[in-house]
């Protein structure tokens, strides 16, 4: 049923990896009877809804998870890696959806972990940093100092370090699990150039993404999983985006690029002269009730940092907040004060800042709102369970029960829990940092519907996204950040993708260099 891709005028590419009857069962089956082939020198896109089994299948191939059923062969030989190291020895590598860098080590140490240049038992720092810098330049990261601890970089940069790491050493098969979820078009272009080079060397690539326009650019074939089953694999050139969506979710999904501007109400929050180092420089803006404002910009432009300053998560050098009453300053110097002032933040980094991973969906969803479910300090068991159950259904979180630990959920479903938490808490001003990161196209429509509902209820929303199409479809205004400054605010109707991009680049030097790193810690 799969078609062999043919390079122009060349013989069919040889099969590198073959899977037969692959299955995985935890409490319930999550993969069943999956047959597939992967050819040397091709990009196979793997798509499907959140929880469909994409990461699980990839982890089986990369040795991180063992299948319950089925067999794999690599270049004709039986292949059953017992660990990630096993797989890497055979040239099979994976960039994980959840970042696995060590935050306290430097960029260089993370990149070359296990390959540290040594002499008489001492690690040679200069050699290490040079090797790291060369590796980073491959994906266009020459501006990052390899000596910086990874924890000082924003999630977008961390994701790129993770990718650079997997490009080191011998590689026959590379799996990229949502590599671009927080990257903007500039970084994605660098990544795609590397993918082309790897393909030309005969490396087989599995590419997982919920951004369908990317799949159209990089993929030779598209494999669709639904509920752990292999639905279809077809050449990308035979498919439209709508075809892919239909086989993923079994229905049509509309994006609504041409929505009307929402009616903006009075000002809910005035942000004045926010400044922190070079990351955020003198940013002022007004958020109105009933509207959704977007924030666009390159990785490192200061978008996340601005949200964190408004939320009181980082200390500002200067600047202040006011509510509707201009004379009244809002005292927000910590997240606790922010929540009291009615401000919520959906974070981009669900692993370190968003969720308590070993805890259940129920605990995580109610974390921000214990007040609403408790009386006299005691949790009202039943009311809480009802509320969380409703949210889970509303956002279609795929799980066995609301008691399931969040670290057993798929990446996109974890993101829905982060979002559910703030739906549960009734705040007036909601800051959203990449709210649909890794969320599938159907569930994204559910999140957009909730954003709409909140705006209609008079809340003010400020949303950072690296996906310009998302901003253009959902927002009433879009502010563009560049090198820490808010360089321009567009009204709906004024913007085009080209104008937004030009603004995003405008404050950088001619050399096209983001000057500072987006701080995340
Ligand atoms: N350790 C585990 N224990 C129990 N269930 C698990 C475990 N790991 C994954 N699952 C379940 O397996 C199913 C498939 O998850 P997987 O991460 O493969 O989905 P995915 O297709 O990658 O989704 P996403 O697009 O959200 O990343 C999910 O329902 C998930 O909850
Ligand atoms: Mg996944």
The secondary-structure class comes to alpha/beta
Q: Quickly name the level 1 CATH class of the domain at 1-91 and 170-250.
A: Alpha Beta
Q: Identify low-pLDDT runs.
A: 369-380, 510-521
Mean pLDDT: 82
- Taking all Cα atoms into account, the compactness measure Rg is 23 Å
How large is the count of helical segments?
18
Q: Characterize the main sheet.
A: 6 strands, mixed
Give the termini distance in whole angstroms: 48 Å
Structure description:
The structure is a single chain. This protein is an alpha/beta fold. It has a domain at 1-91 and 170-250: 3-Layer(aba) Sandwich (Rossmann fold). It is built from 18 helices and 24 strands. The strands form 6 sheets. Strands 6-9-10-3-11-12 form a 6-stranded mixed sheet, sandwiched between helices. It has a 6-stranded mixed sheet with strand order 18-21-22-15-23-24, sandwiched between helices. Strands 2-1-4-5 form a 4-stranded antiparallel sheet, with helices on one face. Helix 14 (381-394) packs across helix 15. The chain is globular. It binds adenosine-5'-triphosphate and magnesium ion. Adenosine-5'-triphosphate binds at residues 26-27, 30, 48, 50-56, 97, 398, 408-413, 438, 440. Magnesium ion is lined by residues 54-55, 97, 177, 410-411.
Supply database-style keywords:
six-stranded mixed sheet; binds adenosine-5'-triphosphate; 521 residues; Rossmann fold; 32% helix; globular; alpha/beta; disordered C terminus; 18 helices; binds magnesium ion
Please outline the helices and strands.
Elements (H helix, E strand, L loop, with lengths): L14 E11 L3 E11 L3 E5 L6 H8 L7 E6 L2 E3 L4 H6 L2 E4 L11 H6 L5 E2 L2 E2 L1 H14 L16 H12 L6 E5 L7 H16 L3 E5 L3 H7 L2 E6 L2 E7 L5 H9 L17 E10 L3 E9 L3 E5 L6 H8 L7 E5 L6 E2 L4 H6 L2 E4 L3 H5 L6 H6 L3 H4 E2 L2 E2 L1 H14 L16 H14 L4 E5 L7 H16 L3 E5 L3 H7 L2 E6 L2 E7 L5 H9 L16
Parallel strand pairs: 3-10, 3-11, 6-9, 9-10, 15-22, 15-23, 18-21, 21-22
Antiparallel strand pairs: 1-2, 1-4, 4-5, 7-8, 11-12, 13-14, 13-16, 16-17, 19-20, 23-24
Bound molecules: adenosine-5'-triphosphate (ATP) and magnesium ion.
The site of magnesium ion has 6 residues, from α1.
